Amino acid sequence: MATNVGTTSRQEFGATSTTEEVLSGINLRGKRILITGVSAGIGVETARSLAAHGAHVVGAARDLVKAEGATAQVRKDAAPNGGSFELIELDLGSLKSVRACADRLLATAEPFDVVIANAGIMATPFGHTVDGFETQFGTNHVGHFVLVNRIARLIRTGGRLINLSSAGHRFSNVDLEDPNFERTKYEPFVAYGRSKTANVLFAVAFDKRHRNRGVRAAAVHPGGIQTELARHMDPDALQAIVKNMKQQLKTIPQGAATSVWAAVVAAAEEIGGQYCENCHVSHVVTDTATITAVSEGVRGYALDPQNAEALWKKSEELVGESF
To answer: Packing angle between helix 188-210 and helix 143-150, nearest 10 degrees?
Structure first.
């Protein structure tokens, strides 16, 4: 019999905990989990660790050829414990692709216990998605907003949504008056901060709408990890940021640990509507200095219910759909 998803935080974990430590003794057979961004980094490890503990994982990726190669170990580790893995195409920078992916998932009508919105980009040069949204906001938030809301009814009672955010949310609140930098000078990390704040606010608003049916949502910060996410950055600049944040770079299994902890280990009431890092629910920080001022914590604006509702309304306007 499969262990219930998120029944308890039976053990204390922290910044150095790995996916295998967090999932020790957890049997996920019978659980079905959707993860976006499984062609590299923590998305692959998140999929691998969950499938290795018996879950059926559906991995979404833009480049299926790349993802197929990157997830060979996922399939290998899944088999001995009754887990399985399959891929589905998803380009978060194209709402046509997002809607097509949602339609395919809805057509099969197979429910999910967990959806992990893991895919993301960071500090990209200024640009736009196919639909005209600033690249980071459009990919990190808007694409996931449409996908998750379109398939929300597939999330089983007792299930949850986990949005990958970042300590980078401290760089900036969302700007709902100018989300696409039409009047604001573009700064890569300001744009990244806006999108990562949006990831938290989306979790807050989704949690409010679905908690009555037993579905909870949370945002997680994986920590500083050297993956393809930083491909647009100078390596020395990345190291300087991590050092100033008073954090050590994590390994990929350590970086994916908070995702799996929030998805299938932590108690639902503990993480619902919250921001988590280092395998625990984080606290609100009021220091108004830069991201480098504190090593942990979430800005109050990222958890503010009114801010979350305003973003939800604006997102619906931008995509022309009501959820």
So the answer is: 20
Residue 19's SS3 state is helix
- Please tell me the pTM assigned to this model: 0.92
Among the listed residues 49, 165, 172, 315, the single catalytic one is: 165
Summarised one tens digit per residue, pLDDT across range 191-205 is 999 999 999 999 999
165 is catalytic: yes
Instruction: Please say if 84 is a catalytic residue.
Output: no
Domain ranges of the chain: 19-319
The rounded distance, in Å, linking the Cα atoms of 256 and 225 is 10
Q: Which tokens sit at 304?
A: 């503010």
Residue 12, classed as helix, strand or coil, is: coil
**CA dihedral defined by 81, 219, 290, 18, rounded to 10 degrees?**
-20
Q: At the topology level of CATH, where does 19-319 sit?
A: Rossmann fold (3.40.50)
DSSP code of 13?
Answer: -
**Phi/psi of residue 163, each to 5°?**
-100, 130
Is residue 196 flagged as an active site residue?
A: yes
Alpha-carbon span 60 to 182, nearest angstrom: 31
